[in-house]
Amino acid sequence: MSFILNIDHVDMEFPTPTGPFTALKDVSLNIAKGEFISLIGHSGCGKSTVLNIVAGLHQATKGGVVLNGKEVTEPGPERAVVFQNHSLLPWLSAYENVELAVQQVFGKTKSKQETREWIEYNLQLVHMDHAMDKRPGEISGGMKQRVGIARALAMQPDVLLMDEPFGALDALTRAHMQDSLMEIQNELNNTVIMITHDVDEAVLLSDRIVMMTNGPAATVGEILEVNLERPRNRLALADDPEYNRLRSEVLKFLYEKQRKVEPLRGQKDAEKTKPQKTPEKTAAA
Amino acid sequence: MNAISTAAEPGRSPVLAKLSSWYASSGDWLKTSVVSLVGIVVFLLVWSAAAQNINTSLGAFPGPTAVAGQFKSLYAEHTAERAKAEAFYERQEARNAKRMEADPDYQPKIRKYTGKETFLDQIGTSLITVASGFLLAAVIAIPLGIAIGLNKNLNTAINPIIQTFKPVSPLAWLPLVTMVVSAVYTSDDPMFAKSFVNSLITVSLCCLWPMLINTSVGVASIEQDLVNVSKVLRLSALTHVRKIVLPASVPMIFTGMRLSLGIAWMVLIAAEMLAQNPGLGKFVWDEFQNGSSESLSRIMAAVFTIGFIGFLLDRFMLQLQKLVSWDKSSAVR
Ligand SMILES: Nc1ncnc2c1ncn2[C@@H]1O[C@H](COP(=O)(O)OP(=O)(O)OP(=O)(O)O)[C@@H](O)[C@H]1O
Ligand SMILES: [Mg+2]
C-alpha cells in the first residue's frame, strides 16, 4: 500500500515557565490516499497537537510530516482544516466565506463562472445552498459547521483535517452531520484525519481508529481497523456484532488500558506537592 | 411583539393590525417624550431659579429666556452680516462694470468682503477644524494601531509612550505646537491660517490615543482560529490585513473613533480659545473679554450649541458604526 501522508517519529515539546513540556513522544502514522482516520484519546492527550503539526500550524520538535513526498513546513490549503468552532469570518456570508478560500486556491485557474459554480457545488454538498447569503450570526451551529466543511472541501485538499468538527453540536444534529459526511465521503473519497471524543462516531465513519495514550509524552497506543461495509447505516449497525466488537475495543482501550482519573479542581496543586498520591485516593478525596 | 401577535389573529384586517401596532409603538414613543419633556422643564425651572440668585460683575446670571433671546439675536446678526456682504459684492461688481465701460483694458479688482465672523460662521469653522484634526489623527492612529496590534514587540516599545501622552491636556500641548508651527510653517501665502493649523494639530494630538489604543487592542484580540484560517489559506500579509484584520477589528476601531471624536470636540474649544482660531472657542473667549451685559447669555448660548453639536457628532459616529460594522451589538447606545 502506498501512503500519501507519513507522520514520522514526531516529538513535540512546548516551552512552559516551568521548563519544556513533552506533549508528544515518537508519534508515527502512515495514511493511505482516500483513507478516513479517526484520532481518539482522552482530553489533553495531544490530539490537536498532532493535527496542528500536520496542518503546519505547529512545528514538531523532532521528526516531521511528509505529504506527497514533500516535508510539511508551513500551513497550506492542500491540508485544509475544519476547526472545532467553525471559525467562519462573521462579516462574510456563507457564500463569501467559501469564496475567500476558492479565490485563494483557484483564483488563477478558474473563471468567474467556474468559481461561482464550484462554490455553489460545495455548498450543495453540505446542504447549505439554501442559506448561501446568510451570515454566520444568522445560522445555527450545525449549519455553521457545514459551511466550515464546505470551505475546507472547496479547497480540494490532499488531506482534510478536522478537529472535533461536531464536538459543539447536540446529539441529533451530530448524527445528521455524520450522515452528511459519509455521503460526501462516498462521493469524493477524501483522505481525512478527524479528531473525535465520540466512540460511535469513530467506528461509524473511520477506516482506521488511532487510539492515543494519555499524556504527557503521548503516543499512538493502538490502531484499530474498521472493516465494516460501506455505505454504513447507523440503524443497521446497531445490531451488527462486528460493529459492537469494534466499539467495545475502543471503550476498553479508553476506559481500561488508558483509564484516566482527572484530579478535581483545586486538588491539582495539592497533588503537585505530594506526587506519590495514587489516583484512587485522589478520586475518593 | 405586540404587533406580531395582533397581526396573526385571524379575522382582523391588516390595516387594523397596522393601526394597533402603530398605537402600541406610538405609546412607547409618547411615554419617552413626555418623560424627557418633564426632565427639560424641571431643568429650566431650576436653572432660572438659580440664575436669579447668582450675581456677577456683569449682572445677573442669564436665565433661559435671556439665552433664548440671544439665539435669536445671534441669528439676526448673521442674516444682517450676510446682507451686508451681498451688498458689498453688488457694489463692487457695479463699480468694476463701470470702470470696464470707460476703459476696456482695465483689470477689475475683486476684493473679499472682510466683515466680522458671525456665530454661524464660527460654528462652521469649528466643525471644519475638528473634522480636519480628527481625520489627521485617524490617518495616523489606525494604521499605527494595526501595526502595533500585529506586532508584540512594537506594542511593548510604544505602549509606555502612549500611556504617557494620553493624559496630557491640550493646554500643555498648545504652546509647543504654536512655537513649532510658527517655526516650521512659514510661507508667504499660507493656504491655512496658523491659528487653524495650531488648533488642528492640538486636536489631533489629544484625540489620537483612544483610536490608537482601541485599534491595537482590536487587532491583537482577533481570534486565533481566524488567524489560523488565514494561515491555512496562505493569505499574503496585505490580504490578511485587508480581509481578516481590518474587518475583524472594525467594531473596536469605531468604538475608538467615537471616543476620539468626543475628545476632539472637547479639546477643540480650549484650543480655539488660546490659538484664536475663529471658531466657537474664540467666540467664548471674545465674549469673555468683551464683558458686556450680554456676554454671559451669549456664552451660555455657545455652551448649548457646543453641547448639542457634540451630541450630534456622537450620533453621527454611532450611525456610521452601525452602517459599517458587522457586529451590530457593538454599536448599541
Ligand atoms: N501552546 C502550548 N503551550 C504549552 N502546552 C501546550 C500548548 N498546546 C498544548 N499544550 C499541552 O499539550 C497537551 C496536549 O494538548 P492538545 O490540545 O493537543 O490536547 P487534545 O488531545 O487536543 O485535548 P482536547 O481533547 O481537550 O482538545 C496538553 O497537556 C496541553 O496542556
Ligand atoms: Mg483538542
From TrEMBL, chain A:
Pfam families: ABC_tran (PF00005). It is an enzyme of class 3 (hydrolase). Gene3D superfamilies: P-loop containing nucleotide triphosphate hydrolases. InterPro entries: AAA+_ATPase, ABC_transporter-like_ATP-bd, ABC_transporter-like_CS, ABC_transporter_ATP-bind, NO3_transporter_ATP-bd-like, P-loop_NTPase. SMART domains: AAA (SM00382). Keywords: ATP-binding, Cell membrane, Hydrolase, Membrane, Nucleotide-binding, Transport. Residues 262-285 are annotated as: Disordered. It is found in: Cell membrane. It is a peripheral membrane protein. GO terms for molecular function: ATP binding; ATP hydrolysis activity; nitrate transmembrane transporter activity. Belongs to the ABC transporter superfamily. This is Bicarbonate transport ATP-binding protein CmpD. The lineage of its organism: Bacteria, Pseudomonadati, Pseudomonadota, Gammaproteobacteria, Oceanospirillales. The gene is cmpD.
From TrEMBL, chain B:
InterPro entries: MetI-like (IPR000515), MetI-like_sf (IPR035906). One of its GO terms (biological process) is transmembrane transport. The chain crosses the membrane at residues 29-50, 127-150, 171-187, 199-223, 244-275, 295-313. Coiled coil: none annotated. Pfam families: BPD_transp_1. The keyword Oxidoreductase does not apply. It is a multi-pass membrane protein. The keyword Zinc does not apply. Residues 123-317 form the ABC transmembrane type-1 domain. Keywords: Cell membrane, Membrane, Transmembrane, Transmembrane helix, Transport. It is found in: Cell membrane. GO terms for cellular component: plasma membrane. PROSITE patterns: ABC_TM1 (PS50928). PANTHER family: ALKANE SULFONATE ABC TRANSPORTER-RELATED, MEMBRANE SUBUNIT, NITRATE IMPORT PERMEASE PROTEIN NRTB. Belongs to the binding-protein-dependent transport system permease family. This is Bicarbonate transport system permease protein CmpB. The gene is cmpB.
